Amino acid sequence: MNLIFLTILLPLAAGLLTLAVPGRWRGVREALLLLATLAGLVSALLFYKTTLTVNLPWVGFGLELSFRLYQFSAFIVLAVAVFSFLVALYSCWSMAGRPSAGQFFAYLLLTVAFTNGAVLADNLILFLFFGEALLLTIFGMIIIGRPGAWRTAVKAFIIVGAADLCLMFGVILTGKLAGTFAMSQINLPLGGPASLAFIFMMIGALAKSGSMPFHTWIPDAALDAPLPFMALLPAALEKLLGIYFLARLTLDLFQLRPESWLSTLLMVIGALTIVLAVMMALIQKDYKKLLSYHAISQVGYMILGIGTAVPVGIVGGLFHLLNNAMYKSCLFLSGGSVEEQAGTTDLTRLGGLFSKMPVTGACFVVAALSISGVPPFNGFFSKELVYAGALERGWTFYAAALAGSFLTAASFLKLGHAVYFGRASGQDNPVKEAAWPALLPMIVIAGGCVLFGVYNALPLHAIEPVLGARLAHSFAGGPENWWLVLATAVVIGLALANHFYGVKRSGKAAGASDHIHYAPGLAPVYDLAEKKYFDPYDLGLKLAGALAQFLYWCDRAIDWLYESLAVGLAAAFSGLLRWCHSGNLSNYAVWALAGAAAVIYYIIR
Amino acid sequence: MSSGALLLLLAVFVPVGGAFLLPLLGRWSASARNIMAFLLVLVSLACSTRLLLTVLTGQTAVYKFPFPLGMSFILSADGLAVFMAVVSALIGAIIVLFSFDYISHYENQNEYYFMVVLFLGSMTGLVYSQNLIFLYLFWELTAFASWRLIGFYRGRKDVLRADKAFLVTFFGALAMLIGFVFIYQQTGTFDLAAMKGLALPGLVVGLILCGILSKSATLPFQTWLPDAGVAPSPVTALLHAAVLVKIGVYVFARLFLMTFVLGAFWHTAVPVIAAASALIAAGAALIETDIKRVIAYSTVSQIGFIFLGLATGSLVGVVGGLLFILMHGLAKGGLFLSAGIIEQNARTKDITRMGGLFATMPVTAAAFAGCAFSIMGIPPFGGFFSKYFVIAGAVDSGQLWLALTFVLGAVLTIIYLFRLFNLIFLGPVKGIAAREGSRLMVFCVVLLAVLSLGAGALINYPAMAVRAAVAQMNGIVK
Questions:
Q1: Per-residue pLDDT for B478 more than 50?
Q2: Which structural domain, as residue segments, surrounds residue B316?
Q3: β-pairing verdict for B73-77 and A188-189
Q4: How far is residue B41 CA from its own chain's centroid?
Q5: pLDDT higher than threshold 60 for residue A427
Q6: Quick check: is B273 in a domain?
Q7: Is residue B329 domain-resident?
Q8: Which chain A residues contact residue B288 at CB under 8 A?
Q9: Of the residues B34, B315, B374, B432, which has the maximum number of CB atoms within 10 A of its CB?
């Protein structure tokens, strides 16, 4: 059995088996889940350095079963395996006793199978096949959340599904232009139809990674879906897949150059995503919803970095992908533990949890420092690389990224202060630390955040070969431009000052951002955004509704031709004939004579 | 007589002839009649499946009974015909099985089974006919059977709608017949095998297209199809989802891919009509509130995709169009049959008065969702492949805008199917909390959903049959 098929088929089979196992067999499903994800982890580790290709005929007409395991895909598969194992462990604890646990485990395994399939695929159509199949598992994982979650599930499905159709168009066009669907053989110059193909594939990649404007289901899912879902998909796997594909697009499939307008377009999307999403994150009063906006905002750094099309930015973007997956899933898991133990994620009702849940609190602090870009944690190093890349392309992009960092730091100061420090403002229930299956994944990931910061040569040496000859030297070690570090330090200092100003002004930690939230000029905009006036999904559905009304009117107009016009004509014609048959003898005589005259005329003519 | 010829005769005349015995049998025993009807279709399916194995080895089977003046009765099994015959007999058999319980408490059951089996037999006859006149005869036989079946409930509205369906398709067929006569004047025969490679004048193509588009309920002849939703649900599934509307598509492939050479103009004109049809029907599906009308409009819309695939003249597109016939038949059959269960147990067809049925009929809901995913084209369901190849065909032929229009149509498909699913199965219960249907009915629905999934997961088998079919076509840019 080929290793590549094992990576895909093992979780697939385990997932289907999990669905079939009856719920009363205690522990069987958990064992299946853990064993399958562990086996995935072990095999990904064992074969990390292997290069392997598979080409088998399948449907034909461009669609072949071709896979390629090489350093980039092996790296992503390893990351997927690590996160899926840790989240699987966590969900054994957090999903315990829920009726939908079996379904969740099955969808988790299927998600791993499809993600591995997409990452390993060396055929664009095959990539599309696996990537689009994820729609089903995302839908399933959200819909089994709290009652009413189906709205979010449908929203996610429609947004990502529409983007996947765009991806499909891009795939087809690329295949047509390149004359092949084999990803390792495509390298198109941009311009004309190739740019069109790039944009459509880019839409698919951006929607997969949860960037703006395809993001609006993520905050909804934060509240509706089971928590491990957030830690696994929007935080880790979706970004791994989406950004992996974006990197393949810009590095291999197309020749994206720094001076091209498409590179600028990507950077603009990245910068807007960073700033707008973090603006929303800042004012949230719910642990999970706040995190979900950061899950969107952080993807902006990756897109910005890759969009720069300069080596330092690309390496930074990919490094940030890995770092974000780590601290973001750790943060979501901490949020899940708090919800499970304290019974709420409302910031105004939480407080002082650090003394009661010290391990969770410590992991949170590490992850929060990482995401805020504080040295020596991993987020600092990847952000500095992205900054350097952005600055190379223009100071406005750098400024946007820096502004995003200020707001990120501010919102995590608020979150940490409100939840783990300060006083508990709600009821005084005895909150205890979570169990070890919940703690272990967080400890491992938090440890990774420290390791990848202090010893960043380890991840960077795995990422950098992806760039191939483009890379002049390694970026491992400390930042090269200390002015940028100074700017970062100033920004973090400002965030601290801002936080204590906000706390002092509002009198409570959860209100640390109120002075920005209710600032004149911003307050009405925030109000509209909270009421989802800017949700592209709602706008899109309204547009589709209006289009449908028009089309329906066209259909009714055609139906009128049959129901009224055709019937009317038939009635008029038969009315005419009826009028002719008046029963009047002289009339008939005239008809007969006229007929006879016509016949005679025809004969003698 | 060779075994292939015998199989052809059995595939067509066992159901066509046997149908006449069903009313007699029904006087004696209802269940004997039901089982007999099922067996007749099954025999036809078995014969066609056996022929499929023959065709996969690259051979064809022919039966010929000579008549003078180019009117010989010829049945021929090539890749295209066998593929279509197997698809329609397979779905037809499942629908007949579903009817056992669905129709059991209505009057006129003898006529029902008579017409259904006659319909399926004539459909098989049409598919295998290699002579335009017999093709036309079988075509009108299906029209007659569907006319009786649409008006099955005998209400005034039902009868009017049946008349509308019959008249629209009949006038279309008449135009087509005139086209056939023109061809006869040119060639002196109705034998399709003798016409390979013939280029037809534009007027004749237009006349034939009138027949094809009216039978396949495509713009501007589409509105009879949603109106025909007054029929019993298995009939709607049979006629309007899986089998009848595919006649037009099939004849298009038979005439313009296998026989005549289509001018460049039509390679653009037909896809444009198809695009308009796909969009307008998708829009209507988003507005309608009657469960069966929504699904019927969805059919009209999806038929547009099939025409797109077949008409652009690209190999990939034709592959997609043929796969689409199979995938859409399975999934849409499942949707209509589910709609039948829902309609009977919720005692309404108005989706705004349903809701929350997932709790009370989870199996049907899951099957419905599976079929809907296939129609949307979500992998690993079969619909993914057909939708992909159809749009790839449009791009392949260089018509990017057309492809983008169909991408928009596919987005609308996702939206209207979710609207339908949400209103029926999710949210609060607004009407009756309907129970599951009988075991047999639920089994049929689940079977169609599983087949939709299986046809995608094991796509290499349908792809094999399609490859055999396109290998024998001549009107394709390869």
A1: no
A2: 264-478
A3: unpaired
A4: 16
A5: no
A6: yes
A7: yes
A8: 552
A9: B374
Residues of chain B with Cβ-Cβ distance to A175 below 8 Å are: 392
- Average pLDDT of chain A? 85
CB B288 within 8 A of CB B297: yes
Per the structure, how many domains does chain B have?
1
Q: What is the pLDDT of residues B109-156, one digit of tens each?
A: 888 899 999 999 999 999 999 889 999 999 999 999 989 888 888 888
Question: Does a structural domain hold residue B427?
Answer: yes
Report the 10 Å Cβ neighbour count for B158: 17
Task: Identify the helix (H) or strand (E) that includes residue A387.
Answer: helix A378-393
Residue A424: per-residue pLDDT: 66
Alpha helices in B188-314 (DSSP H): 202-215, 224-227, 233-235, 244-252, 264-287, 291-311
Grade residue B452 by pLDDT with cuts at 50, 70 and 90. very high
Read off the pLDDT of residues A261-298 as tens digits, 9 standing for 90 and up. Answer: 888 898 899 998 988 888 888 888 888 888 888 888 88
pLDDT value at residue A578: 87
Asked if A452 and A375 touch (Cβ cutoff 8 Å), the reply is: no
Nearest-by-Cβ selection for B223 from A158, A547, A562: A562
Q: Tell me the residues of A at the B interface, defined by beta carbons under 8 Å apart.
A: 58-63, 125, 128-130, 132-133, 135-136, 150, 154, 157-158, 161-162, 165-166, 168-169, 172-173, 175-176, 193, 196, 541, 544-545, 547-552, 554-555, 558-559, 561-562
How far the first Cα of chain A sits from its last, in Å, is 90
**Which neighbouring-strand residues pair with B65?**
B73
The β-bridge partners of A254 are A188
First to last CA, chain B: 36
Helix, strand, coil shares of chain B, percent, nearest 5, are 75, 5, 20
Q: Name residue, tokens 């010290």.
A: A358
> Cα dist. A140→A153, A163, A230, B320 in Å?
8, 19, 13, 28
Give CA–CA dist A402/A491, Å, rounded: 7
Residues of A in contact with B281 (CB under 8 A): 551, 555
Please name the amino acid found at residue A18.
T
B427, closest residue in chain A (CA to CA): A148
* Best to test chain A binding among B381, B415, B470 (most A CBs inside 10 Å): B415
Contact A205, A81 (CB under 8 A): no
Residue A68, strand partner residues: A53
CB-CB under 8 Å, B403 with A158:
no
| Helix H or strand E segment including B91 | helix B79-102
pLDDT band at residue B429 using 50, 70 and 90 as cut-offs: confident
Residues of chain B in contact with residue A129, where contact means CB-CB under 8 angstroms, are 379-380, 384
Position A426 pLDDT exceeds 60: no
Distance between CA atoms of B453 and B289, rounded to whole angstroms? 28
Query: Exposed e or buried b for every residue in A424-440, given b needs 16+ CB within 10 A?
Result: bbeeeeebebbeebbbe
| Residue B224 covered by a domain | no
Give the DSSP H or E segment for B76: strand B73-77
Half-sphere exposure at residue A58, Cβ-oriented, CA atoms within 13 angstroms: 18
Q: To the nearest whole angstrom, how far is the Cα of B283 from the nearest Cα of chain A?
A: 4
The average pLDDT across B77-90 equals: 90
Over residues A409-434, mean pLDDT: 77
Which pLDDT does position A289 carry in this prediction? Answer: 86
Q: Angle at the Cα of A105 (from A103 to A111), degrees rounded to 5?
A: 100
**What is the C-alpha to C-alpha distance for residues B233 and B337, in angstroms, rounded to an integer?**
6
**Kind and range of the H or E run holding B62:** strand B61-65
Q: Which two tokens stand for residue A93?
A: 């604890």
Burial bucket for residue B268 (CB in 10 Å: 0-12, 13-18, 19+): middle
Q: Which residues of B5-38 are buried (b: 16+ CB within 10 A; e: fewer)?
A: bebbbbbbebbbebbeebbebbeeeeeebbbbbb
